[in-house]
Design brief:
Blueprint (H helix, E strand, L loop, with lengths): L4 E4 L5 H8 L6 E10 L2 E10 L4 E5 L6 H11 L6 E3 L3 H9 L7 E4 H8 L8 H9 L8 H10 L8 H20 L13
Parallel strand pairs: 1-4, 2-5, 5-6
Antiparallel strand pairs: 2-3, 3-4
C-alpha cells in the first residue's frame, strides 16, 4: 500500500525538508500545479513525495530567498533523482521561473505509454488505478481555492481512499486519545 504523510512547508523550511528527504539516491516525486504550453509556463504549487511516505507542499509563487535557493540547488543537482508526470510541460514552467531541473530519473506518463502504447491518455490517476490499484483524490479547483483563501487545510481523497485511509486514520487517532485497541479488516464489496 502507499501511504503519504504530507505537510505544508512554511517559510524557511524547504532547505531542511530537502536535506532530510531529498539528499539520498532514492528519487523524489515532484508534482506541479500551474499552466504550460508554447514553450513556457508558470508553476503555482509544488508537491514533493518520497517513496517511503513523507511528502511536502510548497508555494513557489511567494518564495523566501533561502527557500528558493535551496529548491534551485536541489532541482539543479543531477545526483538527486527526480520523477515527474508528463515532464515536458512542468519542466518548461520551472525553467520560466529560473529553476533548471537536472537528474530527471523518470517520467511516469512516458513509462505508462511504454508499458501500454495503445492506451490513449496517460493520466497519473489512471496509472495509479491500473498499477497500484489506488484511487488518487484531487480537490476540485473551487474547493482548493476556497480552502486556501480561508486558511483551511484541505485533504482531498478519492471515495475509495477516504473509506479505507480515513477510517484507519480516525481509528488510530481515537485509539491514541482514548487508549483503545482497534483493527482494520479489508473485505471485498459486496460481501
Amino acid at each position: 500500500s502507499v501511504e503519504i504523510a504530507g505537510r505544508m512547508l512554511k517559510t524557511g523550511q524547504v532547505a531542511g525538508w530537502l536535506a532530510e528527504h531529498g539528499a539520498g539516491t532514492e528519487p523524489l516525486g515532484v508534482a506541479l500545479k500551474g499552466s504550460w504550453g508554447r514553450g513556457t509556463g508558470d508553476v503555482t504549487a509544488m508537491a514533493l513525495a518520497t517513496a517511503g511516505g513523507p511528502a511536502a507542499w510548497l508555494n513557489p509563487t511567494e518564495p523566501d530567498p533561502q527557500d528558493e535557493n535551496a529548491l534551485r540547488t536541489w532541482l539543479g543537482d543531477a545526483s538527486r533523482p527526480k520523477v515527474l508526470h508528463d515532464a515536458k510541460g512542468p519542466l518548461l514552467a520551472l525553467d520560466a521561473r529560473g529553476l533548471e531541473v537536472k537528474g530527471l530519473a523518470g517520467d511516469t506518463a512516458l513509462a505508462g505509454y511504454l508499458v501500454n502504447p495503445g492506451q490513449r491518455g496517460v493520466e497519473l490517476a489512471d496509472l495509479a488505478r491500473q498499477f497500484l490499484h489506488r484511487e488518487l483524490g484531487e480537490a476540485e479547483e473551487p474547493s482548493a481555492a476556497t480552502a486556501r483563501e480561508l486558511g483551511i487545510h484541505l485533504i482531498a481523497a478519492g471515495h475509495h481512499a477516504t473509506e479505507r485511509l480515513g477510517v484507519q486514520a480516525l481509528a488510530a487517532h481515537l485509539a491514541e486519545r482514548f487508549r483503545l485497541e482497534w483493527s482494520y479488516v479489508e473485505i471485498e464489496n459486496p460481501v
